[in-house]
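=== RUN LOG ===
request id: a7f3
mode: sequence -> structure
chains: 1
length: 467
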Amino acid sequence: MRISSLPEPLFDEADKRWWEIEVGLEGGQSATGWVRETGLVNVELCSCWAWPGFEIVQERSSNGDILRHSLQVNGETTPAEHFQETASTVEQSELFRSLRQVMDADQRDGVTRDEMRSALRRPWLAQALSRLIANYETEWGGDMTKWDALDTLMAGEYANDWIAEKNRIGQLMWWDDASSLEGFPSSTRIYCIHPIALVDNFYETISNTCFPLKAAQEIALRVSGGYEGRANLDYHALADDFDGQGTSFGLIQWNFGQNTLGPLLLQMYNRDPGAFAGAFPAAADYRPLETAIRNQSQQAQLDWARSVLRTNRAAWSQAFHNIGDVPAFQEIQLNAVLDYHENVVTAIGMMRGIAPDLMQEIHVGTYAALYDLCVQQGTIDKGGSLASIRQRYATERPATQTDFLKIVVQERARTANSRWRADAMSRRMGIIQRSAYAASESGHSANRSNVNFQLLEGIHDQPICQL
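=== RESULT ===
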């Protein structure tokens, strides 16, 4: 199954993806469960060029025998017709054994019409059926004797219709006429491939003129986290009050000082109060924090963090490490991270309003820089920054999206708190040029490095799908 067709994955502590999938069981039933991208038996990430799930089967049964099989298993024989032996023979062919393995729900009466219809309504069964490649004689070639063999089965009320149908078949045959063409197969036995299954298998390759949005989001998240020295997603990342924010925690360092950590902890508390409370050692003085986050009191949250850091730093550290261990709380972190996408989309809309010709396609590098900006600064429109962006655009007339992006991140950085302007400038410009960038603003300097700059190499200027 294609990854893009599955729900969004969750990540474990090793930063490996887990997908919830529906799989087939014996007898045509199904079960739902979770699979990991590595380390599980019979689970493998593979290229479409591996033709996953495709199976070549031979079918040698005649048209007449296949029709007799159909009449028998669907209960449509007359009292005078006894086709059980023929039907059993057909059932033992490669094609019908494969069909039976996929969808014969009762494993008793062969592949019936109702089972076929039921299977086609189940995505995983329909996909399995569509990936059977049958080697069989084409209906576009051969002689008419294979159709004449059905005459006795089409007697009575069907006789006239069958005569008309055979005439139509004869007029539509073209294989022999084309057999003299160079390179055209002379044999009428061909490999019958489901055309939609073929296209579906190579869809990601065929349509890979743009970079998947979800992949761009993951890269942007990792690049933003790379400024904290984290190569991979880190649900446990923790920093103290060194910057006056009380506590910074999680994938993108939510903190009490900017009132981003409190709402996140409240979501966790509401999801599972017991697990949340259980994460705190006795020395962490949990009750004041619970009251602070339930009352949404930012100052009380800051006071709690600073108090625990003074009295029992180990308990403070252990509490947040325990929170980062809880899968349900990891899911809350990941969902909150993806919420920043809406801020990025808003920023892109503002930039398109100024320079629509430069912003028709959004590059991966642009998305990563705007994502980091939105995580730290929320929006590109604050403190007159948008007016400054418009003015510089009108004056400088940037020729590329990257040049325009530089204007945006520079002007937004200059409206940040004076202490952090150089830091904001260094981070975003570093993402744009994919290397450390030295910035000086308002008497402060910064030259931020990033362990994940390399993630953007070779893809920074690729356009993103869905943007």
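=== NOTES ===
The longest strand covers residues 17-24.
The longest helix spans residues 327-354.
=== END ===
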